[in-house]
Design a protein that fits this description.
Blueprint (H helix, E strand, L loop, with lengths): L3 H11 L8 E12 L2 E12 L3 E5 L6 H7 L10 E9 L2 E2 L7 H7 E4 L10 H11 L6 H13 L3 H4 L12 H14 L4 E5 L7 H14 L4 E5 L3 H7 L2 E6 L2 E7 H6 L4 H7 L5
Parallel strand pairs: 3-8, 3-9, 6-7, 7-8
Antiparallel strand pairs: 1-2, 1-4, 4-5, 9-10
Helix pairs in contact: 4-5, 4-7, 5-7
The protein binds adenosine-5'-triphosphate (ATP) and magnesium ion (MG).
The site of magnesium ion (MG) has 3 residues, from α2.
Length: 271
């Protein structure tokens, strides 16, 4: 008779994820500079698959620089250099055989300001799908509808799919960009202050989407909204003074920070 253990052993054999590393992304001894200025030194961190990590810290502490490094958005920025590694499923994102477009498909990004492309609403959603030849023809309509429904935008835009996205509200434009990012099936989504320009209702919509998207997706989100970090994230990283000062389970970082600087920051005592 099969014991519970042997059943779970068989199930884990059948699990397509069993060969995949637990950490989808990791930074190792990562140092980031612009010219002679070091922005962050010696960051070591791993992002477990299917979790949400919040990046917090004062303005200028390097949150965006770190985030943008993770899908090589800084590679061509004037003066940017790095030491150390970023591993995507164990492989360096800077390794010779890596294709930049593929990395950007696997590690998607949403910026603080919504940036719809100058094309119709529908074409925005399927832009990446087209470029990567994931679907074509009538399939694109299905992809567009599915993704717009997923982000809760379908009813608002179904009668104007061929209109410009620029007449949508800021919150709707951000949801459209989220639909576009999700459409190519990323493994990781990088969000840089995704709700800072949104009203409380749209913010709540994006936060509940973030929770709904995990564990299928791994999310790393920069936020100045400490309530948001606490509400949505599993882990929190605190950047300050050129370093990753603290990294831990969100509840611990907020309620029992290990470092005095973290304590001051999460309790609003740091300017
Ligand atoms: N392209 C660049 N060239 C030179 N310095 C830069 C460049 N981009 C950013 N920096 C500098 O790097 C430091 C970190 O900037 P970054 O944008 O990562 O901070 P941040 O934590 O995201 O801040 P904020 O909360 O205001 O968005 C800042 O001192 C900034 O001036
Ligand atoms: Mg920033």
């Amino acid at each position: 008779m099969a014991t519970t253990e042997s059943v779970s052993a068989v199930l884990s054999e059948l699990d397509p994820d069993r060969q995949r590393p637990t950490n989808v992304l990791a930074a190792q001894q990562l140092t980031l500079r612009f010219g002679a200025t070091t922005i962050l030194s010696d960051v070591n961190v791993a992002f477990p698959r299917g979790t949400i990590t919040a990046l917090i810290g004062p303005t200028g502490s390097g949150k965006s620089t770190f985030l943008r490094t993770l899908n090589r958005m800084n590679d061509r920025v004037y003066g940017f250099t790095h030491e150390g590694e970023v591993l995507l499923e164990g492989q360096s994102i800077w390794a010779g055989g890596q294709d930049l477009l593929t990395i950007r498909r696997r590690v998607g990004m949403l910026f603080q300001r919504p940036n719809p492309f100058p094309m119709s609403i529908k074409d925005n959603v399927v832009a990446g799908v087209r470029a990567h030849r994931i679907a074509r023809g009538k399939q694109l309509d299905v992809v567009a509808e599915t993704r717009l429904r997923e982000v809760g935008l379908w009813d608002a835009v179904k009668d104007r799919l061929h209109d410009s996205p620029y007449r949508l509200s800021g919150g709707q434009q951000q949801l459209l960009c989220l639909a576009r990012a999700l459409a190519v099936g990323p493994e990781v989504l990088l969000l840089d202050e995704p709700t800072s320009a949104l009203d409380p209702l749209s913010t709540e919509a994006v936060e509940s989407l973030m929770r709904a998207m995990t564990p299928a997706l791994t999310i790393i989100v920069v936020t100045h909204n400490l309530g948001q970090a606490r509400r949505v994230s599993d882990h929190t990283m605190f950047f300050y003074d050129g370093r990753l000062v603290e990294h831990g389970v969100t509840e611990q970082v907020f309620s029992a920070p290990r470092q005095p600087d973290t304590d001051r920051y999460v309790n609003g005592l740091m300017g």
